[in-house]
Amino acid sequence: MSSTDKTTALSTPTWPFRLAPNPGATPLANYGARQSAVLDAAGLAEARACISAWPGYAPTPLVKLPGLAAALNIGRLFYKQEGARFGLRSFKPLGGAYAVQRCLMREVAARLGVEAVDPQEILARRHAQIVANITVTAATDGNHGRSVAWGARMFGCRCVIYINEAVTPAREEAIAAFGAEVRRHPGSFDDAVRQAFETARREGWHVIPDTSDGNIVVAPRDVTQGYAVMAAEAIEQLPGGKPPTHMFLQAGVGGMAAACCAEFWRRFGADRPTTVIVEPEQAACWFASLAAGRPIAIAGDLDSFMGGLACGEPSPLAWEILQPGAHAAMTLVDAAAEAIMRLLAEGCQGDAPLVAGESGVAGLAGLIAVARDGAARRLLTLAPESEAIVFGSEGATDEAMYRRVVGRSWQEVAA
Ligand SMILES: Cc1ncc(COP(=O)(O)O)c(C=O)c1O
Predict the structure, then answer these.
(1) Cα-flanking dihedrals φ and ψ of residue 174, to 5°?
(2) What's the pTM?
(3) Low-confidence ranges of the chain (pLDDT < 50)
(4) N or C end of the chain, less CB within 10 A?
């Protein structure tokens, strides 16, 4: 499809995209046992209790964009602004740092020979000597590693982060700034993931993956439950707690999308929003997998401007949620993300300017592409009275990249 139909008043250039319904979707099904094993009320409550005790915690704003909603010919548009999260400028600390805390709770309990250790004890560094001898590791395209490194510093353990060759020096420096050792590995994100696992096995370290390999599920589940705090906040911030009709979620391995889909499904059942997974065209593993009805690994050069979404393999844990839970999937070209970063920096028709990074705008870019295409609107029943939510999952996490794309620094845009 191509967003050429003049159903909206937006002047931003249009771009090609692919959109397909998910043949495995079960829109009327209840949130079931398979889903509860990934996220349930108890898991979310524990994540919220831990995360809200961290220094600097505050719910991020749910911003209303009435100008853009009008330009898109929809009723309301909500944008969860994760650029403000813990000063790390992305939603990621909710997952990676939370999984570090949970990992330390388990490991300290094992070393002390006790059944459980309270999260507060880890936060207050009551077992500092034991924790200092624990190493956590992760592979990252930037944001997840920053989050794990930040968590490791907060709790006082050692941290080694693997990055692949496409990760920018600015992102590398941001991780190292939290005291982590950063190791650059040739190949793709998925190659870096394999390297982190191999080294951890050899050295007795703890991997904090944001994806599961089908066997390792504990840490990725912690990550997902941490991410779900973002969705839970958003639900509380929605006027009247009423679910929007549409939700567009960007996906890399699918952890963020799964957390959001799960929490809206858990809370609203069949009244949950029509949920669309959005990916870069060249790394569309969810698009291919949902069409095939089974997880598929994408080969080739996955490199995308939307670096956080440049993943070739869906997380099996996220599959439990998104395979039945997502209503549709779509792909976007990189130019779409650039255009939407600029659009948000300008503010559309009186909306306040927003600082948004390249992976963070993909869900919104997906909504905009659909809203401007008659056939796509019909397919997703997007109408003038529809209400959409998107998660602006990062701010200017790479300042140089932001300035290059937008033409101004993020500070100038935010001022
Ligand atoms: C800003 C941002 N948004 C979204 C995602 C996608 O998250 P996931 O890999 O859990 O699908 C990432 C992943 O790194 C990211 O950095």
Answers:
(1) -65, -35
(2) 0.95
(3) 3-6
(4) C
